[in-house]
Design a protein that fits this description.
Organism: Rhizobium mayense
Shape: globular
Distance between the termini: 26 Å
Helix content: 40-55%
Number of strands: 10
Low-confidence stretches: none
Keywords: Hydrolase
Strand content: 15-25%
Radius of gyration: 17 Å
GO molecular function, one term: hydrolase activity
Structural class: alpha/beta
Strand order of the largest sheet: 1-2-4-3-5-6-9-10
Mean pLDDT: 96
Protein name: Alpha/beta hydrolase
Pfam families: Abhydrolase_6 (PF12697)
């Protein structure tokens, strides 16, 4: 495992870790709201690391990246776009496949709108959100998020802890092993409530980006997801002509945690196909 500090948008320092072979095709993991790189442990400690270069960042405001409290650091889509571009540029990632969970769907679309698709070879949207407005509440974004968001953005610590515990439990359909569940609650609690709130102070419509996207796209979605509803996945499929779907029965918002064997196998195949064309030439 190698650790990097990347200078992101507006000079913010981003914490990035990588595993695997430096000269192998790259998979770049981007986590969701209130998470960090640790959520991808079942991927970077798997056989994926034998054949790929695996890179995972902590988003601005999360994990071990810089976390200024002012909302302006989180409401400008250009900053999110520049963070992704900075990791790709400064670590010399050659045509990575982006894997974006939940809120990372917004961030990947920010990147595509600002920098275009030319530096990446494919995208795996995982329980990913691409629309955030009032109309999406309850139709695309579900009670697994909405029921806890007020508490999760409260400065009252007991209220905050209770909301995050319930939110993390609600991210999966089956109960996670106790050690993983406890660790997940811990990494969620490292994100200040003000930053969680700031991430939600945007209105986002990514349909124009998805419609124009010609890259290979895999949409991975748990059928029992109550955080980002399956309707969001269907919306993405309808908007993105190149997208294919992988639906997980008896799985919630985090299929890569609930069924890592299947998830890793599908990601392996998708990344391999995205990195190499029909003639075996690197993209």
């Amino acid at each position: 495992m190698r650790i990097h500090t990347v200078t992101g948008g507006a000079g913010l320092r981003l914490h990035v870790r990588e595993w695997g072979k430096e000269d192998a095709p790259t998979i770049f993991f981007i986590h969701g709201w209130s998470q960090n790189h640790l959520c991808w442990k079942s991927q970077y400690e798997s056989a994926l690391a034998e054949d790929f270069r695996l890179v995972a960042m902590d988003l601005r405001g999360h994990g071990m990246s810089d976390a200024p409290l002012e909302a302006a650091h989180y409401t400008d889509p250009q900053l999110w776009a520049d963070d992704i571009a900075a990791v790709i540029d400064q670590l010399n990632l050659a045509s990575p496949v982006l894997v974006g969970w939940s809120y990372a769907g917004y961030i990947i679309c920010d990147y595509l709108r600002a920098h275009g698709p030319g530096r990446i070879s494919g995208i795996n949207f995982v329980g990913a959100a691409t629309t955030m407005n009032k109309a999406a509440l309850g139709t695309l974004i579900g009670p697994g998020f909405l029921d806890h968001v007020i508490g999760a953005t409260s400065d009252d610590l007991p209220t905050n802890i209770e909301a995050i515990r319930n939110f993390v439990r609600g991210c999966t359909y089956s109960q996670l092993p106790s050690e993983l569940l406890e660790t997940a609650i811990c990494w969620n609690m490292t994100v200040p409530a003000k930053i969680r709130a700031a991430l939600l102070a945007r209105e986002i419509d990514s349909d124009d980006v998805l419609t124009a996207l010609a890259l290979p796209v895999l949409m991975t979605q748990g059928e029992e997801d109550t955080v980002i509803l399956p309707a969001m996945g269907r919306h993405l499929l309808a908007s993105c002509p190149r997208a294919t779907a992988s639906w997980y029965a008896a799985a919630g918002h985090a299929p890569f945690l609930e069924n890592p064997g299947r998830f890793n196998s599908e990601l392996y195949q998708f990344a391999r196909d995205a990195h190499f064309d029909n003639h075996g030439q690197s993209r």
